[in-house]
Design brief:
The chain is of the alpha/beta class and 193 residues long. It has a single domain, classed as Pyruvate-ferredoxin oxidoreductase, PFOR, domain III (Pyruvate-ferredoxin Oxidoreductase, domain 3). The protein is 38% helix and 24% strand. The protein is built from 8 helices and 6 strands, in the order βαβββαβααβαααα. Helix 5 crosses helix 6, helix 5 crosses helix 8 and helix 6 crosses helix 8. The two termini are 32 Å apart.
Length: 193
C-alpha cells in the first residue's frame, strides 16, 4: 500500500495553475493512482492568490491538503511559497519560481515586499528549489510556460519515466502549444542537473 501524497500548487491568477494540476493529474491517473484535485480560487481574475490541492495514492478520500501534509509545494511566485509553507510536511520540498509579482498592498504602497522571504524559509530548515522559471519559459518560447517549467522540475522527484510525462503533456495541452510546452518541460527538468 502506498501512503497518500499531497501536492500544493500555489500561484497568482492567470499563471496556469489549472493546466499544471491537469498535467499532474493526467500523469498520475495514467500511472494507476487514485487522485483527487481541489481548486481554491482567490481573486484570480485580479492577480490574487490561487491554490490547487492534488492528492494521490492507492485510495484517496479527500482532495484537501491539511497543515503539515504536503510533500511538495509548487509556487509560481516567492510570496506564494511563504504563504503556504505551513502546509509542507517535515522533509517536504518547495519548488518555486524566483519571479516577483507584487500583491495589491505592495502596489498600493501599504506594505513592503518581503525581499528575503526564501532565505528566511531556508533558515527555518525548509528545503527550497528556487529557479528563474520565467527566463526558462521565455527561452522555450513564451512567458506563459512558467507553470510547465516548474512541472518539469517537479517531475525529477517522481519515479515516472520522462516519456510518460511528455505523453501526459501531449494529452493535456492544445496541439498548437505542444512543442513549446515540451521545450519548457525539458528546461525545467534539466535545471540544476
Amino acid at each position: 500500500m502506498m501512503n497518500t501524497k499531497g501536492i500544493v500548487i500555489a500561484g497568482v491568477g492567470g499563471q496556469g495553475s489549472l493546466l499544471a494540476s491537469k498535467l499532474l493529474g493526467r500523469v498520475l491517473v495514467n500511472e494507476g493512482y487514485d487522485i483527487k484535485v481541489s481548486e481554491v480560487h482567490g481573486m484570480s481574475q485580479r492577480g490574487g492568490s490561487v491554490i490547487t490541492y492534488v492528492r494521490y495514492g492507492d485510495k484517496v478520500y479527500s482532495p484537501v491538503v491539511q497543515s503539515g501534509e504536503a510533500d511538495y509545494i509548487i509556487s509560481f511566485e516567492r510570496i506564494e511559497a511563504a504563504r503556504y509553507a505551513y502546509l509542507l510536511k517535515t522533509g517536504g520540498i518547495i519548488i518555486t519560481n524566483t519571479q516577483r509579482i507584487d500583491p495589491m498592498p505592495v502596489i498600493m504602497g501599504t506594505a513592503d515586499y518581503p525581499e528575503q522571504i526564501l532565505e528566511e524559509l531556508t533558515a527555518k530548515g525548509v528545503h527550497i528549489e528556487a529557479m528563474d522559471a520565467l527566463s526558462l519559459a521565455e527561452q522555450a518560447g513564451s512567458f506563459k510556460a512558467v507553470n510547465i517549467v516548474l512541472m518539469g522540475q517537479l517531475a525529477k522527484h517522481f519515479h515516472i519515466d520522462y516519456d510518460k510525462w511528455i505523453a501526459a503533456l501531449e494529452q493535456t495541452v492544445k496541439p498548437k502549444f505542444v512543442e513549446l510546452n515540451k521545450k519548457a518541460f525539458a528546461l525545467g527538468y534539466q535545471f540544476g542537473n
